[in-house]
Amino acid sequence: xxxxxxxxxxxxxxxxxxxxxxxxxxxxxxxxxxxxxxxxxxxxxxxxxxxxxxxxxxxxxxxxxxxxxxxxxxxxxxxxxxxxxxxxxxxxxxxxxxxxxxxxxxxxxxxxxxxxxxxxxxxxxxxxxxxxxxxxxxxxxxxxxxxxxxxxxxxxxxxxxxxxxxxxxxxxxxxxxxxxxxxxxxxxxxxxxxxxxxxxxxxxxxxxxxxxxxxxxxxxxxxx
Amino acid sequence: xxxxxxxxxxxxxxxxxxxxxxxxxxxxxxxxxxxxxxxxxxxxxxxxxxxxxxxxxxxxxxxxxxxxxxxxxxxxxxxxxxxxxxxxxxxxxxxxxxxxxxxxxxxxxxxxxxxxxxxxxxxxxxxxxxxxxxxxxxxxxxxxxxxxxxxxxxxxxxxxxxxxxxxxxxxxxxxxxxxxxxxxxxxxxxxxxxxxxxxxxxxxxxxxxxxxxxxxxxxxxxxx
DNA sequence: GATGATTAGATTATCTGACAATCTTACTTT
DNA sequence: AAAGTAAGATTGTCAGATAATCTAATCATC
Lengths: 224, 224
Prior knowledge:
CATH class of the largest domain in chain A: Mainly Alpha
Structural class of chain A: mainly alpha
Radius of gyration of chain A: 24 Å
Oligomer: homodimer
Shape of chain A: elongated
CATH superfamily of the largest domain in chain A: GntR ligand-binding domain-like
Order of helices and strands of chain A: HHHEEHHHHHHH
Strand content of chain A: under 5%
CATH architecture of the largest domain in chain A: Up-down Bundle
Strand order of the largest sheet of chain A: 1-2
Largest sheet of chain A: 2 strands, antiparallel
């Protein structure tokens, strides 16, 4: 039995040491770190190896690097992680049913928040309205799909719940194939549906918007 | 106003192209990728630059690399993400309000699905019950946090909407700090709350479960 | 003396090239 | 035919060099 001992990758060791370095120094976002060269000699590795470690951390926003300035402790934003969420084990082989149900859940769940914020900010309605107006003039399927995604994205955005934004983008990738199966005749129905949703929201009739949006999204169910 | 145009980092572009390469090729975990050298020439960058991109992705588990074998597709390693995002002081960037609202939205939105599936599958209730029973015997805060996360995760899982699972895992990382501020005296209240939720679900009283879960999650709001 | 422009230094970004470590595969030998 | 072996392929790591960019000090001008 040849125990294939997983030789610890150099950059993983470096990443871990850098983590403890930040922890033990009690460093806060914005604090400066030693330069790449100094860290490399301190950890006893070459600069490329050190860079592979720092770049991994930078990918998550844990550290930031700017030329001429050096390395600093960064601010984490979850966008980076959620952007690559499509590679989560749970995302493999997602059925169409699940996708539709998930979208209904999120988009209808967002409606009360949107309605509440709309009362204080007129521009939210205007934005959605503008997209829908453009949608009416769409001639190609590609443009229609693009604008339709933009509309629903803006709807989530209007809720102010930023974590959902990134997630929706992931979902959109998987959902695209359904949109592309939409026939031209069905466009107008979708646009009218959009309009009823945002008008109901503006008037504060959340339940009505909920019903309308639900049937709108679920109309995809027939096409599979 | 000095327009600091963020010049897109080369490795970020490469990472993104690699992501779309995997997505468009519909590659599954375990599938082989081209070699580093080939990818480098294909993307028009040097090998070190390409490596900084692949190593960033490898850090998340999205790709795996082994000498002599090459690059293969992986899936997101949540433990790794938790380990490095969980410690970071900059987690406070995502507002607590948004996190709580998002969790309420998703977990309450899931309840009708859970109730429906529970009717056809008793084991869903049993699983949740088992976790809650363990929760009662938790002695350390660390164990309590772990089990509490497991409970809410299982709740989402019971809905059968796997896309939400992926998202919840990420959210859990950011929510951890709230759980860790829970006092021991409050454990029991949480456990009873869990129990009322799943009992209501089993009985098909979705609205009651909704109310209960909503106040349960929103109880975190006071602690900030 | 204060202010603005310029320049020098520091630091990361990227590349070229090389060698070591390790796994896969095909070949050779029994 | 099976097992051991060697060659090839691929990632891991390193050294060194140049470009791009930011910071800070210096200098000229008013």
